[in-house]
Amino acid sequence: MSAYYLGIDIGAAASKAVVIDGHNNIVGAAVIPSGTNYSTTAAAVKDTALRQAGLQSSAVSASAATGIGGRNAGADSYHGVIICDARGVNLTFPSARTVIDIGGQGSQVITMDGEGRVINFNISEICATGSARLLQVVARILQIGIDEIGPLSLRSAKPSSFSTSCTVFLETEVITRISQGDRPEDILAGIHRSIADKISGMSRGVALEKDFAIIGGGALDIGLVQAIEEKLAVKALVPGNPRLMAALGAAVIAKER
Amino acid sequence: MEYEASKLFFAGIDIGSTMSKAVVVDARGKMLGYVVGQTGAEHRRRANRVMEDVLIKSSITLDQIAYIISTGYGRVNVPFADRQVTELTCHAKGVASLFPEVRTAIDIGGQDAKVLKIKNGRLTDFLTNDKCAAGTGRFLEVAAETLGLGLNEMGQVSLQSDSPVKINSLCTIFAQQEIISRLSEGQPLPDILAGVYIAVTTRVVKLARQLKVEPPVVFTGGVAKNAGMVKAMETVLGTAVLVPEEPLITGALGAAILARDEAFKLVQDGAYEAHRDKKLTEAYIDFGEKNERKM
After folding, report:
1. Fewer CB within 10 Å, N- or C-terminus of chain A?
2. Phi and psi (nearest 5°) for A59?
């Protein structure tokens, strides 16, 4: 009978689970909102991933958890999100040496070697501007869906510029810009630049090397990915499901233990 | 023209991001009157208005004002000011005039916060935050909106708490979410509010500690009017703070005192009369109907 391994990542905004087989192939995965009760969320996301894989929970030989609520996930072991991010990306893109993770409450920049071992990292303080949260706030003001942000922003010819980087102050400034006639695509492109500036500031003191991978919920926004590429003057690799990387890394760690 | 230096008056105008303030002092630096009003979108109109109001409050007329200094974020929009001076300088001057022994001044405004180190009445060092809403009055406004309370009411209710709830997020956006979660968990409102004040204060004190907090500490800005905030500041700092009777006007007061110093310098140099003749003509134009129509 073959063995399976489970990785769970309970993040600030979303929780993810990944099931891999003995050859590191993903056989099941799930993403659900985190909610307020981390243990219930962990059980739900795990069940969803196992169902997708067509497995019973008894088929799981070992599990590992990460993320802000990972200690309450009922897994065999807990690991920091930096280590899990690095392992997950290394498995997906062996050439990647720098990881930028844009999460729901903050972001992190990680450098690693060819084995996925962490060399250096910087974690942002909890700040809406350095996270995908700012995008939600602006999408609400513009009355568009979160998925529309990226494609719409790419149509911008003249990104708006903003005098502040705080989400609270940006809310007011975005409304002012709308009243001055700025187009939604220009506002979004300007917001992407604000986030890219914040992330670039965070990368200071960490020697960034090619290849770059951008992961986390923020990587689903093509406009944001391009703004970061432009700011750092690099091309970035983006996984098919960028939100799963830490859970995937946790699953690999569970397998190796 | 005849004049007597001891009978001159001086004004300071502070156009802040949220509130505008004006102060008139006499030749001894004693305050004759002050006004505080919302800044709103039109700085110039506001500047005219607070100036007119402070003259009425002080029972004097514009031609009795020898020198005017403007300060604050909107200081360039005070056309009738003789000089513009940064809020840090004015603020230090104002605080030291009220509390000559002051060593640390903490000012929390509507959209910013500043920490000043002062020695012998002089500004020696400072740090400011205008990049992040956490640690400013804006954080309290967001909390008040979230809870559907008035700002003063919030302060009063918070005083009933003796075990503040911990708000972990420094970021205003995430703290708002945390406040809602604590409410839904059934935590008592006074404890949540006390936690909100501790959160704002902690952010500012973190800034202050970079400069070393030395007593006496003076706490000013609109936020210092709030009883809950003063209690939180004393708790987090671990020391008593001095709060002026009207904590909003220290910048304008400092500007008025600096205006007096400037005017006396002109008097000493024998240049005051020329300054006044020029000023009387200009002031007439600035306050005349022409200017009102321009806006």
Report:
1. N
2. -75, -15
Check whether residue A110 and residue A88 sit in a common domain.
no
Q: Does residue B211 sit in the same domain as residue B115?
A: yes
Q: Do residue B279 and residue B212 come from a single domain?
A: no
pTM summary value: 0.82
Domain containing residue A205: CATH number: 3.30.420.40
Number of domains chain A is built from: 2
Q: Are residues A121 and A220 in the same domain?
A: yes
Number of domains in chain B: 2
Query: Are B167 and B40 part of one and the same domain?
Result: no
Q: CB–CB of B169 and A126 under 8 A?
A: yes
CA-CA distances (angstroms) from residue B41 to A93, A100, B290? 52, 40, 20
pLDDT tens string A149-178: 999 999 999 999 998 889 999 999 999 999
Report yes or no: A128 at the B interface, CB cutoff 8 Å: yes
Residue A168 with chain B: CB contacts under 8 Å = 133, 138-139, 142, 172-173
The number of CA neighbours under 13 Å toward the Cβ of B230 is: 19
Range of the domain at A191: 94-238
* Polymer length of chain A: 257
Distance CA B295, CA B289 (A): 10
Q: Are both A55 and A101 inside the same structural domain?
A: no
Q: Tell me whether residues B173 and A169 touch, CB distance under 8 A.
A: no
Q: Nearest C-alpha of chain B: how many angstroms from A193?
A: 16
Q: Which residue, among A248, A240, A241, has the nearest Cα to A18 in the 3D structure?
A: A248
Residues A125 and A76 in one domain: no
Of B205, B220, B242, which closes a domain? B242
CA distances B205 to A128, B100, B136, B184, Å, are 21, 22, 12, 29
Q: Does ipTM surpass 0.85 in this model?
A: no
Closest Cβ opposite residue B131 in set A36, A125, A165: A165
List, for residues B271-294, the tens digit of each pLDDT value: 888 887 776 666 554 544 444 433
CA distances from B68 to A212, B53, B62, B120, B255 (A): 57, 15, 10, 25, 8
Q: Do residue A59 and residue A82 come from a single domain?
A: yes
Interchain contact, A166 vs B133, CB within 8 Å: yes
Statement to judge: residues A143 and A28 lie in one domain: no
**pLDDT for the residue numbered B1:** 43
Nearest residue in A to B141, CA atom: A168
Cβ–Cβ of A126/B131 closer than 8 Å? no
- Region A105-121 average pLDDT: 94
pLDDT value at residue B32: 95
A175 touches chain B (CB under 8 A): no
Tell me if B96 is assigned to some domain: no
Positive or negative, the CA dihedral A50, A51, A52, A56 is positive
Which of A36, A126, A164 faces B171 most closely, judged by CB atoms?
A126
Query: A125 and B170 in contact by Cβ < 8 A?
Result: yes
For residue A35, the chain B residue with the least C-alpha distance is B181
The verdict on A101 and A221 lying in the same domain is yes
The range of the structural domain enclosing residue B51 comes to: 5-90+250-294
Q: Where are the beta strands (DSSP E) in A105-217?
A: 107-112, 118-123, 212-215
